[in-house]
């Protein structure tokens, strides 16, 4: 006897939504980490005693990583 015919459909949809939320949370953590690295690299680049080109290259690299992560999140499809 199947007391709730759509039960497994709802469970599957819930799991997909949960997976999307976890991916978004992981993106938020990763973007916060990259932003902190960018802030640090920017601060280092502004210091006169440091090699400005090196710090700015690091900021550029981190910016590209952050854009790649945001592109990955934008590719997530709503359930």
Question: Can you offer a commentary on this structure?
Answer:
With 79 residues, this protein is an all-alpha fold. The chain has a domain at 29-79. The chain contains two helices and no strands. The chain has helices spanning 7-46, 52-74. The longest helix has 40 residues, at 7-46.
Structure annotation, total helices: 2
- Average residue pLDDT: 76
Number of strands: 0
How large, in whole angstroms, is the Cα Rg?
Answer: 21 Å
Could you give the distance between the termini?
Answer: 29 Å
Structural class: mainly alpha
Largest sheet, in brief, is:
none
State the shape. rod-shaped
Strand content: under 5%
Helical percentage: over 70%
| Poorly predicted runs of 5 or more residues | none
SSE ordering: HH
List the helices and strands and how they pair.
Layout: H1 7-46, H2 52-74
Helix pairs in contact: 1-2
